[in-house]
Design a protein that fits this description.
mainly alpha; 7 helices; single chain; two-stranded antiparallel sheet; Four Helix Bundle (Hemerythrin (Met), subunit A); 187 residues; 59% helix
Length: 187
């Protein structure tokens, strides 16, 4: 499977799902209560929802740029900083929705095969704590890009559930529902 055929179809449905969860929060809660969710945390030592939403987008954008061998645009650094600052400045749900929509648009604009680096090519991934991961493109996609993306998506889902937004498994994996088929009932 190519990286483009793996990552783009992973990122877009889950980003779309995150956007739908925010829509549900707005529909289910008074405006101020829904906006306050952006400051909610799953645990005190974890980033708030506003950060999780941004970092999910960052993970998708980093994966897209890194596998194309392209430098990160300034927008990625800005999203990282906004995420780090979200405890004090969470922004609004409308702003979060705009970030998600822009990320979806960027991923959807990829040409076929755009991410299809040589699976054995070297990826050097510098972490904010000064450590460096030396990976192949295949290891990066499988062991970093996808798990890190899902980590932030799942934490966002868990915060919303924990704070009373009525979302469930069908909201988390809405993109697979079209593949369901009924099983015939025995008489």
């Amino acid at each position: 499977m190519s990286f483009t055929n793996l990552l783009a179809p992973t990122y877009v449905p889950m980003l779309t799902a995150m956007s739908a969860w925010l829509d549900k929060a707005m529909a289910q809660m008074p405006g101020d209560e829904a906006e306050a969710l952006l400051s909610a945390r799953l645990a005190e030592d974890m980033y708030p929802l506003a950060t999780q939403l941004r970092f999910a987008c960052v993970q998708a954008l980093e994966g897209v740029h890194r596998l194309q061998g392209k430098p990160f645009p300034a927008r990625i650094g800005e999203l990282v900083q906004q995420g780090r600052d979200a405890g004090e400045r969470p922004g609004s749900i409308a702003e979060a929705q705009a970030v998600i929509a822009a990320t979806i648009a960027e991923v959807e604009s990829l040409d076929a095969g755009a991410l299809d680096a040589d699976p054995d090519s070297a990826i050097v991934h510098e972490l904010p704590n000064g450590m460096v991961l030396d990976l192949t493109a295949q290891q990066y996609a499988r062991d970093w890009a996808i798990p890190q993306f899902y980590f932030h998506v799942m934490i966002a889902y868990a915060i919303l559930r924990h704070r009373g937004v009525e979302i469930g498994k069908a909201d988390y994996c809405a993109h697979v529902l079209p593949f369901l088929r009924p099983v015939p009932q025995e008489a």
